[in-house]
Amino acid sequence: MTKLSFALCLTVGLATWASQSLAYDAPKASTPPVIDGDASDAAWSNAPWQAIDQLTLGEQPAAEDFSGRFKIVWTPSKLYLLGEIVDDILIDTHADPLEAYWEDDTFEIFLDEDHSGGDHLDNYNAFAYHIALDNQAIDRNTSGKPRYLNDHVTSVWKRQAGDDNKIIWEASFDIYPDTFSDTNNKATPVTLESGKKMGFMVAYCDSDSSQGREHFIGSYDIPALDGDKNRGYIDASVFETLVLVD
Ligand SMILES: [Ca+2]
Ligand SMILES: [Ca+2]
Ligand SMILES: [Ca+2]
Ligand SMILES: [Ca+2]
To answer: Does the UniProt entry include the keyword Nucleotide-binding (predicted)?
Structure first.
């Protein structure tokens, strides 16, 4: 192989990798899915599955311990997430929704409305919605304290008959811009349109005991910084790209 052909192969390979791993094309839903933990909505049939299979923290789980995949669709007013999760034990050890919320089973979606990237730990440049088993959504406020964001998120999950370890988890999101603040909870969600790009990731915190989170598995292989891949809750620059398509 010549140097040129090797370089071309490398370039094509990297481009293929980037196109496969960095963007999710979410189709528009003509009829929005009903958020009820039942995946039979017609809207989901048009959306591709993406795996939640990238180990971010902890040990790699066996498939029956945790495995998952998701779909996303949209309408002008909301973004919709379908999760198909296998988890052998569902547990909510910390009764207080604001206490150590990442140590209980938690479905997590990261959203950066304007695809800006950058720090979002204690600001609303991006959101890390931690959706707990009680369907409440939590993220850190501008004082670094956990707060409810339940008026942004509607969530319902159900176990599936005949498949005890599988749950269908549906959620819808109002998409808030970075002008949202702790004192302006009435900030207006944006209207979504075809072609819009946002930063996003989907992840699951798997806890199976009172010992807390055992596995943190995401949809994207975050580049490690000093050996640490658990950067999504801090830095929106490590997110994937979500593209809204017709
Ligand atoms: Ca449904
Ligand atoms: Ca598990
Ligand atoms: Ca942003
Ligand atoms: Ca679990």
So the answer is: no
pLDDT tops 90 at residue 220? yes
Give the Å distance between the CA of 202 and the centre of ligand 4.
16
DSSP 192: P
| CA-wise closest residue to 49 among 81, 75, 17 | 81
Reply yes or no on whether the pLDDT at 17 is more than 50: no
Residue 70 C-alpha from the chain's centroid: 9
Ligand positioned closest to the Cα atom of 29: 1
CATH number for domain 24-245, candidates 1.10.10.10, 3.10.290.10, 2.60.40.1190, 3.40.50.1950: 2.60.40.1190
pTM beyond 0.85: the answer is yes
Closest-lying ligand to the alpha carbon of 178? 3
Ligand lying closest to the C-alpha of residue 59: 2
15 Cα: distance to centroid of ligand 1 (angstroms): 35
- Per-residue pLDDT at 3: 52
> Which chain residues have CB less than 5 Å from ligand 4, an ion?
87, 89, 105, 206, 208
Please report the pLDDT score of residue 185 as a whole number.
64
